Amino acid sequence: MPDEMECISVATKEFDEGPLALYMVINFLKNEFSPVQWANLRTVLATHQDWQGGRPSTSVWPPSKFATLSIRFELLPAAWREAQKKAADLGDVSASDLRTLTDMLLEFSCSDDPPTFPLPKYVLDLGANQIAMRADSRVVEVLLRNYYDIENTHDLRGWCWQCIWALGTRR
User: Is 75 helix (H, G, I), strand (E, B) or coil?
Assistant: First the structure.
């Protein structure tokens, strides 16, 4: 597999003068971003285009309890401590649950929603129910204990990254 990756997107819009197109080409190395970091950056780039030519937004990241407001998308200190606690508390996780949960967390985090997209409680309830139906209740309890601190997609991706890290390094 190549180390170099490329993402190409094309956005079009019809105007009185005819259609206009915006082409965006992003080149990066695979090891520069985790799938969660890439999803967060990709959606910022895709959703912060303005066809009206208004004042540019100076803020692309919402306030977060989980992750830094940057391209690197690192866990905040409290979220990092919680990831370590989750890893210690998870203990044994079956191979089936591990695979299912990791796939689900990656799927949750790789949506096309921008980081600023608010997540109401009923959406969070749907996600919590999906997790609860697919894993051992002890594991679900550990992973979900700070789930309802999520307010937006940026938080969701931070929480997913926290859980993926904990599942991957559990003791």
Answer: strand
Q: What is the pLDDT of residue 35?
A: 80
pLDDT tens digit sequence for 127-154: 999 999 999 999 999 999 999 999 999 9
SS3 17: coil
Structure-block tokens of residue 32: 């520069």
Tell me the two tokens of residue 46: 């895709």
Q: Over the stretch 15-32, which tens digit does the pLDDT of each residue have?
A: 888 998 888 887 877 788
Phi, psi angle pair for 82, to nearest 5°: -65, -40
Supply the pTM of this predicted model: 0.83
- Residue 115, class by beta-carbon neighbours within 10 Å (0-12 exposed, 13-18 middle, 19+ buried)? buried
Question: Which residue matches tokens 């959606």?
Answer: 43
- Which residue blocks in the chain are alpha helix, DSSP H? 35-47, 77-90, 95-109, 121-132, 137-144, 153-169
| Pairwise CA distance, residues 163 & 48, whole Å | 28
> What are the residues whose beta carbons fall under 8 Å from the beta carbon of 90, sequence distance 6 or more?
139, 142, 143, 166, 167, 170, 171
Predicted confidence (pLDDT) at residue 90 exceeds the cutoff of 90: yes
